[in-house]
Amino acid sequence: MNKKSKKKSKVPFRLNMLFFAVFMLFSILVLRLGELQIVFGDDFKREIERTEDVTVSNPVPRGKMLDRSGKVIVDNTPLNAITYTKQSDTTTKDMLETAEKLAKLIDLDSSKVPERDKKDFWILIHPEKAKDKITAKEWNLLDQKKLDNEKIYKLQLDRITNEDLNSLTPQELETCAIWREMNSGYSLTPQIVKNKDVTPEEFAAVSENLENLPGVDTTTDWDRNYVFGDTLKSILGEVSSSESGLPKEQLETYLAKGYSRNDRVGKSYLELKYEDVLRGEKAKVKNVTDKTGKVLSTDVISEGQRGKDLVLTIDMDLQAQVDKIIEEEMWKAKQNPNTGLMDRAFVVLMNPKTGEILAMSGKQLVKNKETGKMEMRDYAQGNITSSYNVGSAVKGATILTGYKTGAIKPGDTQLDEPLVIKNTQTKKSWKTFGRINDLRALQVSSNVYMWKTVIAMAHGQYVPNRPLVLDSDYGFDTMRKSFSQFGLGSRTGIDLPNETTGFPGPEKKPGLLLDFAIGQYDTYTPIQLAQYIATIANGGYRIEPHLVKEIRDPSENTNELGPIVQEIQPKVLNRLDMKDDWIKRVQEGFRMVFQVGDGTGVGYWKSAAYNPAGKTGTAEAFYDGSDKTKRGTPVWNLSLVSFAPYDNPEVSMAVVVPWAYQGSGPSINHTIGRRVMDAYFDLKKARAAAEPTAEQNAGGNLLDTTSTSTPVETTPTAETTEQTE
Description:
The chain is of the alpha+beta class. It has a domain at 316-698: Beta-lactamase (3-Layer(aba) Sandwich), CATH 3.40.710. Helices cover 37% and strands 19% of the residues. Strands 2, 3, 4, 5, 8, 15 and 16 form a seven-stranded mixed sheet that branches. Strands 11-10-9-20-19-18 form a six-stranded antiparallel sheet. Helix 15 packs antiparallel against helix 25 (668-690), helix 17 (395-405) packs parallel to helix 19 and helix 17 (395-405) packs antiparallel against helix 23. The longest helix is centred in the first third of the chain and has 38 residues, at 2-39.
């Protein structure tokens, strides 16, 4: 009994000790918490209140551009760069000291520093002299608050003389240039001080002295590299420099999207159009700072990702050949004395079933200001930004409009004869053909057939030796509305900014309606001509032309393409409100132009093995180019539209050569067009021989929309081949 009692008495004692120990621990904890809250609470509260998070976005390289086969067209070249990041608590004196140290390690061109920045710098390094620029009376007015500091500073700037600025030494000017770059960015945002021509010695010297250069860092930047030089350069576009940063006219828009003022952005064409795709996702860094702006810690939120890549519809092998052909034919034509005003030529190659632009070439002769010699420059953007009278190339649209309005029916004949209209110079075709039908009119490019068609359409009637009476307002409205269905006189929808619609003639006189019918009144762009002929070639579908084929994520492997983000599908803008048989009949007329009898293109095209069809154009116009002394001079514009093969079109083409010659001259539209179309099919054949699937790289039938149309069988009357229209 005694043993059991002793054992039982020990248990409560141990429990009591345990409870006591727990009680003491809790007591200590409560006392410590009370101490932290009561004694140090205000200190911790102030510590929390004096810190803040600042998120900074750092730019990443832009996406690449590649051609349809994967050849890189636009890339990023890595550059050694020296940057400066201004802290929130950095003073002007701190920046000046850093700039002075940096000036001893790197060379920076000071010749482009604006005068205003030099004045600011002069005041910064000569505070006493700057103070002396203000009179005692003016200082008193400042004390009396009748002048403010801003006005005083402006007076100082105004009173700095050229002698003052000339006193700046070369070393000080270099420091000024560096200080200007350092001072142009936001706080906590890296600002590029120098990224062009940074020598290995400069890069190493700065890297070794970073501890003595607060805010300065060495890193890798990038610059845009156009792999094929000037080829397509005007269409690819440009990117702003780190110096110019955001365009002033769009500054607020970009800032609202999260850009920094010194960010590089697309300035024109594809670089601008696809800016949101090419820019990438910025790397984000969170800086924790105290109230003085001192950075307490830095955390990486996201690494960022360079921009997405654009795979273009362009075939660069084909593009290079087209560029070369234009240059060679222009230089050759310039040997003719009547071609003095010819200074440009354009070619657009397009898949009529998908709208993919396979080549877009434009060349312009420009005088080099340094050498005084003429040189050929890229002018591909002229295909969408410049417009011209294109002549008879549009007669397919005139015939189809005649069918639609009931002015003519397929097979209708008319007498091709000189039109004698009262008080008007006699109007006639380049040759009198007698009675002809619609196909023959296209084959030999009869003007009279087109004129009589639009006269009937505008509710008029031709009576020899009498004034031409017709409803010209109705005629113009009807023709322009119909032509716009082909893309003539309206935007094509191409994925580029700054596309022009051309210029409609300002008046609507009866005689001008006749000029309109043969392409000698309203002006059209080369891309509009390309869309027009593609619409006829594919059976009546106006397809939106486009230069971007795919958008892809960037790939970690430089030799591979990343996964597809978006594939651009063909977009039908409208279907011609016309019967299929009518369109087939015009297709047949175009085949006859190139392949039958005295068609206007037979001499150049009949031997082609790829079964071409098309239409020539010669327009009497007036020179309105850069030579002001020659403006208003009568000239001839040449054009050509075509597609092939005729029975299953896979490529369509527009050629425009403005101001080709005065009086008479070479048929450069034919020579360029034939060589370009030959190049397309030769390249396709060579690729097919090398690899069975290479046809796709040449822009073949990428979309299975093969036409099942059957050419209209007709036997035209054989006549001599036309040399001019």
